[in-house]
C-alpha cells in the first residue's frame, strides 16, 4: 500500500461509510468539500464538513476502530490519503501540528463531556470554578473520605485564597484534622516515578494541570462529581495514559484521578512531551492511539445514553465496556468490571423512580453477578445479544436511515499516487470536528526509553 496518494471523488461519492472497519487511512482535503453524516445527529458536536487543509478520519484510523460517521464529497473533491504510519511520521516531524491535534481531541472530549453530563440534574455546573471545587470537597467530606476532602480543600485555598467559601473551607479543615487526618500525604518518589497509596488522589477536578501520566504499575480510577454523587468514567491499567487534556488545552482538569491500590505513574510535563514526541515515534503512537480510543469509546458510550429506556442504556453500556476492554462479543469466558450495580445505574443516568425496576431486571439476569463493587459478566456473548434485543425495541433517533443506506452506490473515480509529497504542513487545519471515533498501552520495554528521555528532558 502506498504511503500517500491523491484521490479524486465526484460529487456525492463516498469516501468511507459509518461502521466501516477498513480504517487504515487518514485524509486531508486538497480541494473541494467533504461532508459528514451520522446515524445519531444528537451525538454530533461541531461542524459538519471539512474544506481545503482540513484533516479527517484520524480518530478511527489511530484507534483502529470502525468509522464513526459517513464521509462523502459534497462537490467534486480531491483528498490526500495517508497511511496511519505516514500520518504519525508527519506529526513526529511537526510537534506544533501534534499539539494542535491534541487540542482538537481535548475540545472534542470536553464537548462530549457536556453531553454525557447535561445541565439537568447537575445543579451548579455554571458556578464559578472555586464554588465547584468547594462542592467537590464537601462531597468527600459528607462521605467521610477525609483525606480526599482535605486534598480538595487545600487545593481550594492554594488556588482561591480569597474565595467565597474560604471560611467554610477553613472550618471543614479544622474538623477533618480532629479526626486524625492531619495532612495529605504526597506521593513517594521512586526515581522519576511517583508512587501513590490506595485511594489517593493524583489530581482532582477543577485544579490546573501541567502534566500527563503513564501508569507503570497498578490502576487508576477516573471519576467525575455529578448530581451530588461520584460517577466512574474509567478504570485505567498499566501502560495507559491519563491527564493529557489539561496539559494540551491549558484548562482545568475535568475529572479526578484516584489510585486503585498501590500505583506508580510516570509524570510528563508539556515541555518534556514536545521533546519526547520529536524523539520517540513509539511514544507518539501510544499517546495518539490512547487518546483516539478514548474519544471513540466516549462517543459510543455517549451514544448509548440517548436510548429512551434505561434498561437499553445499561446493556448498550455493558456491551461497549466489553469492547473497550478488548473482550470479544463472541466470548463465553467470564469478565469482571470494577464497578457495582449502584455505579452502573449512575453511569447510565437511571432516574431514582426507575432504579428499583431496572435493578430487579438486572438481578434476574443469571448472566450477571453483582457483588462487592464488581460486576461479573459470565458470558459476554449473551450481553451483546441482549443489547441488540433491547435496541430493537427502543428508539435512538428519528428516521430509519434507509435513505442513507440506499445511497451507497457511489464510488471514487480516480486513485492516483501522489507525484510530490504534500510539503510543509504548518498551515494544515484541523477539521471543524474530530467526530471520527493495537493496544493503546505503553509496553514495559518502552519505560526504559522513557526514563532516559524524561531524565534528559528535565535537565
Task: Describe the structure concisely.
The chain is of the alpha+beta class. Among the domains are: 4-114 and 402-417, Jelly Rolls; 307-392, Arc Repressor Mutant, subunit A. It is built from 15 helices and 19 strands.
Walk me through what this model shows.
The chain has 459 residues and is of the alpha+beta class. Among the domains are: 4-114 and 402-417, Jelly Rolls (Sandwich), CATH 2.60.120.10; 307-392, Winged helix-like DNA-binding domain superfamily/Winged helix DNA-binding domain (Arc Repressor Mutant, subunit A, Orthogonal Bundle), CATH 1.10.10.10. The protein is built from 15 helices and 19 strands. The strands form 4 sheets. Strands 9, 10, 11, 12, 13, 14 and 15 form a 7-stranded antiparallel sheet that branches. It has a 5-stranded antiparallel sheet with strand order 6-3-8-1-19. Helix 3 (95-116) packs parallel to helix 9, helix 4 (129-142) packs antiparallel against helix 5 (146-159) and helix 8 crosses helix 15 (444-458). It starts with a strand and ends with a helix.
